[in-house]
Please model this.
Amino acid sequence: MSFWASGLVMVKRKERRLRIITYYEFRGSEETAKTTMMPGVALSWRNGLRMRRLPWRTRALNTLNDEISPSRQIIISPPLVSLDIPDDWTPYPPSSHFDFPINCSHEQTAAVIDGKSIADDIRSRIGSEVRRMKESIGMVPGLGVIMVGQRRDSETYVRNKMMACEEVGIKSNVAHLPEHCTKDQLLKALSKFDVDPTVHGILVQLPLPQHLDERKIMDVLSPEKDVDGFHPINIGNLAMRGREPMFIPCTPKGCIELLLRSGVEIVGKKAAVIGRSNIVGLPASLLLQRHHATVSIVHAFTKNPEHITCEADIVVTAAGVPNLVRGNWLKPGAVVIDVGTNPVEDPSCERGYRLIGDVCYEEAVRVVSAITPVPGGVGPMTIAMLLSNTLDSAKRAYAFT
Model:
């Protein structure tokens, strides 16, 4: 069966539980489609556990199709980028009953890992080092931030970062661009910061508007000033043993710092990372491996994820789904780092909502040995790590020790 839909011609066929959709993508008018068609295959699993059907546009995996003669195929594996489809989390339905692990307490037994107080101590030390730099060489670290549009959440994040910079003595500069700015305008602002010797770190506030390709923008960013740690070179060096990235992504770096400062042993422990985003999940798993943990990654396509997490000594969750991780997902005595920051409606709060994590806190504290709260856990550490990365960049630039 063939039909036109959103610029795609799709042919469906069913093979067991796997639905294979061969498609041809084209650009331009229907008349010119025949000369610009690109073959590909999209896969979607049916009857998956807690899985929603993927939207048509996110099913295209852009790999080889069966019309290519097998004799011409050398490698049948598709380009990795073509396999990138978004994780579509569907949490368990609310329930008043959960089977807790045996030996769990009916009261809170978990120690609360106070990210705010740890971050305050780090920021105080950064402030002292910035003052020492200024007194010694007359220079201070500089951070350039590019903000596109007027998203309220992004404006809040940028404002908090600027306040933190001012507090420790780091010079900050924000380039505000309109929502509908062009790629060239954004690259011009990026280039201005890149050639400025007083700017040691550049941060592009994400997400960007849809018409701007985040990947291409981040590729242009200089790895030497990539204080967010997202440049492919920095991620690649993080993944490879024997290599040192110039910067480690701020949130994963903060997670490890919380574990180390809380006296949690990582070497040889089983760790589960829930979520695999480029910002948190992926670099967190790589960083835990560099610290010699045995790491399992749980994502939206993982079957029976609770069977994996309940064996983990350390759980880092960054799925962005409120209360996804229930008490019976966790091993008694485990340590939980909850990166999730999810707003839920609450008329009793001044803003009409409150923030909760990916972990059901009320259940987890009866099972685990230590846990970060939301808010007040990982969030403050992310900003502290951004300041630390900016200071490290300035020290390299000025050869300051």
